[in-house]
Write a structure and sequence with these properties.
Number of helices: 2
Helix content: 10-25%
Radius of gyration: 26 Å
Number of strands: 7
Strand order of the largest sheet: 5-4-7-6
Oligomer: single chain
Order of helices and strands: EEHEEEEEH
Structural class: alpha+beta
Strand content: 35-45%
Distance between the termini: 68 Å
């Protein structure tokens, strides 16, 4: 017997009228629900789907941001977050970008340093981020 869990999806309709009416982890409950729905609609079906596909492997991203005042070089705000994602998207990668915020007049108000990395490379990401922040602050201060 397979360790893969099956989801039983109760559906009705076809094409643009296709609807998912319910999702169950046991076939008996799905069939009972489908039988009740069949009293008012004749196109109700129970479909079987893997509850969790093997193609998805969870990974985590670390995101870091620092906002730097474009006139003084002061750090206005720093924040970070972690989020889940499909691990195959960019496992092991670390990227840092710097972008500016400006008024319609074109005057730059602030710079934001943004780093995104696989959480397994958090130390590398924090080091890269700190280096970019230091470089941008030095540039603003004319050093």
């Amino acid at each position: 017997m397979s360790d893969q869990q099956i989801a039983y999806v109760v559906t009705s309709g076809e094409y643009s009228d296709y609807r998912i009416r319910g999702v169950f982890l046991d076939e008996l409950s799905a069939r009972k629900y489908a039988d009740e729905l069949n009293r008012s609609a004749s196109d109700v079906q129970v479909e079987e789907h893997p509850a969790r596909g093997p193609e998805f492997t969870a990974g985590r991203d670390l995101s870091l941001w620092t906002r730097i005042d474009a006139r003084t070089g002061d750090i206005e705000r720093e924040w970070s977050s972690e989020s889940a994602r499909d691990a195959s998207e960019h496992d092991g990668q670390c990227s840092t970008q710097v972008y500016s915020s400006s008024l319609a007049t074109g005057r730059v108000l602030a710079f934001t340093v943004s780093t995104r990395a696989d959480v397994t490379h958090a130390e590398r990401a924090r080091k890269s981020h700190a280096e970019y922040v230091a470089k941008k602050r030095a540039e603003v201060l004319g050093l």
